[in-house]
């Protein structure tokens, strides 16, 4: 009887772990629009359609969107991954196993902003302004983006602090030998 109860309890724990993975998933759909519409969107250097569109991006990393249209200047937007406020609830409901699954899969994060709109400016020379898009975002730029999101009330103070600590930890681990 005890063994059966133990197995049932273990099954419940395993099934309830990774709550954010089940609820949020490891990707997030981001709406991208422009004025005028019909602009090409590249996410991290990969073609992702034309505006207006919804693109699916992994929650685990920051992303750079580049929006271009002939006759207009190129626009670039950074989507920052921040730790979702639901992590605390997940730890309570799913325990450390649930949090571990969500941390590994990226489901504990959300991308902000979740909606991107750009007003394209006519190019001075009549063609698309060519700028080399950034593919990697420095820790300094991530911190600036994070602060802007806090100032714009797009993330909570708790999300800001948790993500800030993660960025600092990642930066501190660069150059460290891996085992």
Q: Can you describe this structure?
A:
The chain has helices at residues 2-16, 19-23, 87-105, 139-151, 157-173; strands at residues 27-35, 40-43, 46-50, 53-58, 63-68, 75-83, 109-112, 115-119. It is an alpha+beta fold and 179 residues long. The chain has a five-stranded antiparallel β-sheet with strand order 3-2-5-6-7. Helix 4 (139-151) runs antiparallel to helix 5.
Task: Map the helices and strands.
Blueprint: H1 2-16, H2 19-23, E1 27-35, E2 40-43, E3 46-50, E4 53-58, E5 63-68, E6 75-83, H3 87-105, E7 109-112, E8 115-119, H4 139-151, H5 157-173
Parallel strand pairs: 1-8
Antiparallel strand pairs: 1-4, 2-3, 2-5, 5-6, 6-7
Helix pairs in contact: 4-5
What is the structure about, briefly put?
The chain has helices at residues 2-16, 19-23, 87-105, 139-151, 157-173, and strands at 27-35, 40-43, 46-50, 53-58, 63-68, 75-83, 109-112, 115-119.
Oligomer: single chain
Biggest β-sheet: strands ordered side by side in the sheet: 3-2-5-6-7
Number of helices: 5
Overall structural class, as computed from helix and strand content, comes to alpha+beta
Count all strands and give the number. Answer: 8
Write down the Rg.
20 Å
Proportion of residues in β-strands? 25-35%
- Taking the alpha carbons of the first and last residues, their distance comes to 44 Å
């Amino acid at each position: 009887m005890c063994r059966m109860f133990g197995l049932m309890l273990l099954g419940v724990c395993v099934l309830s772990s990774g709550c954010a993975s089940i609820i949020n998933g490891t990707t997030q759909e981001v709406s991208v629009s422009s004025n005028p519409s019909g602009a090409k969107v590249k996410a991290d250097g990969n073609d992702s359609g034309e505006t207006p569109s919804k693109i699916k991006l992994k929650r685990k990393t920051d992303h750079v969107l580049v929006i271009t249209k002939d006759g207009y200047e190129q626009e670039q937007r950074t989507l920052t991954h921040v730790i979702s406020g639901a992590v605390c609830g997940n730890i309570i409901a799913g325990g450390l196993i649930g949090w571990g699954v969500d941390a590994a899969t990226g489901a504990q994060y959300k991308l902000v902003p979740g909606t991107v709109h750009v007003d394209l400016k006519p190019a001075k020379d009549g063609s698309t302004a060519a700028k080399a898009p950034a593919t990697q975002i420095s820790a300094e730029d991530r911190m600036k983006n994070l602060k802007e999101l806090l100032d714009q009330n797009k993330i909570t103070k708790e999300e800001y602090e948790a993500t800030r600590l993660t960025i600092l930890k990642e930066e501190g681990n660069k150059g460290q030998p891996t085992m």
